[in-house]
Amino acid sequence: MPEEMKVGCARPTGGPVGEEQPQARPEETGGAELSAKREGGAMIKLGRKAPDFVAPAYHQGKFVSVKLSEYLGKWIVLCFYPGDFTFV
Amino acid sequence: MSMDSVFVHKIWNEVEISKMVSGGVPFAMLSDAGGRVGSLYDVYDIDAGVDTRGRFIIDPDGVIQGYEVLTPPVGRNVLETLRQIQAFQLVRQSKGAEATPSGWRPGKPTLKPGPDLVGRVWETWKTSMAFD
């Protein structure tokens, strides 16, 4: 699925794709709308669409471009962490 | 996903991760330049300039079903993440007819929410089930 990238000297970057897609899915969340606290309006809400993004990635020997929405149809675990070579 | 470049991801995988996990990281190691995606998901710490330890479970429709965010010194629990995914998969498969009570793991009883269950959860779910 992810497209292989040609990598030059510039560091590849990515970012958000399109706009927010607020689509409530009350049947599976019991109507819960617990929002992450954020000044100026929450973007992340349980039961709402995950914001789409494109990001460069290293995957098993290759540099690829990953788009979240390409994984529709699968369960996704998206993990953020402070940095490579941090300890935990 | 961290703010490191894909180049740093490659070297970290080579010099360290591959010594912990046979074959190295099996999934894509994403690069979040400038914390733009972390900001989008509200896990970017603007003071520290890093993404905090956020973990999101996204279902096949692209809907966020759960998240957990921890500050840098405390790591996450992979088994708990897998347990939650298994629970969400069961709920999805039952089209919401079943729910997984506290302490549920695959094989343990589920609840079937409805008028008959009101006030009678105690008959099928025992407190000890949250801890075994």
Number of domains of chain B: 2
Give the N-terminus to C-terminus distance of chain B in angstroms: 34 Å
Q: Strands across the major sheet of chain A, in which order?
A: 1-4-3-2
Helicity of chain A, as a percent range: under 10%
Q: What is the N-to-C succession of helices and strands of chain A? A: EEHEEE
Number of DSSP-assigned strands of chain A:
5
> How can the largest sheet of chain A be summarized?
4 strands, antiparallel
Extract low-pLDDT stretches of chain A. 24-41
Largest protein interface?
A-B, 56 and 64 residues
Shape of chain A: globular
Radius of gyration of chain A: 16 Å
Regarding quaternary structure, how should these chains be classified?
heterodimer
Q: Kindly estimate the percentage of residues of chain A that lie in beta strands according to DSSP.
A: 15-25%
Strand neighbour order, sheet with most strands of chain B:
2-3
Mean pLDDT of chain B: 96
Tally of DSSP β-strands of chain B: 5
Taken in chain order, the helices and strands of chain B follow as HEHEEEEHH
Overall pLDDT metric of chain A: 80
Give the radius of gyration of chain B: 19 Å
